[in-house]
Predict the structure.
Amino acid sequence: MRQSFEHPATRTRTGFGLIIALVVVLASATAPSANAQRTPLWSLDGTVGVVGSYTGALVKEAAVAMPTLDLTFAVRVRPSHNALVLGLNASGGPYASNDMCVFGPDGRCLPSHAGFAFAGLLAGWESRDARVRALAGPAFAISGGPHPVLALQSRIETAISIVRHVALIGSLRAALVPNYESAVYSLVSAGLGLRLRGG
């Protein structure tokens, strides 16, 4: 007997929208400050948020939305100018799946939507006041398979200073896994977090 279930993306749509709204508010507050502090040389970011993942593969959830965690370490080149930023990042989140069976064309239960963790390299631009950053780069996507697969990732971030070495950050990120078990997966996430910086 075919069983129905509530789509996971539907349950998190409201929370995802609220996070995006908060990121937009942060972005609108990035006007340069007259009391700008010395530009930091390095930063360590930690953000939590929601990631939505979409695929055309024949799985029981075409799209899912789940919590995500991202950690990024970055070093700034030419700190007194709009600068190149080089970084390392790791991100991922639990992709829970319900136990209900959704039948495929062959009458068998379809597999669940794949969940990914990423480890990658980032490079990009940061404004002179370190408030806005745009990064992109390659990554390894790790899922349930025996080997990681190649992925591409990008992000736009904005930061607002709280105290001297700490800033509140908002982040919009995207990732593309072009070939996981012969299927393409696209991921979009929004998050809020803290940036520790120094140098």
Remarks:
- Residues 8 and 128 are 41 Å apart (CA to CA).
- Helices lie at 8-11, 13-27.
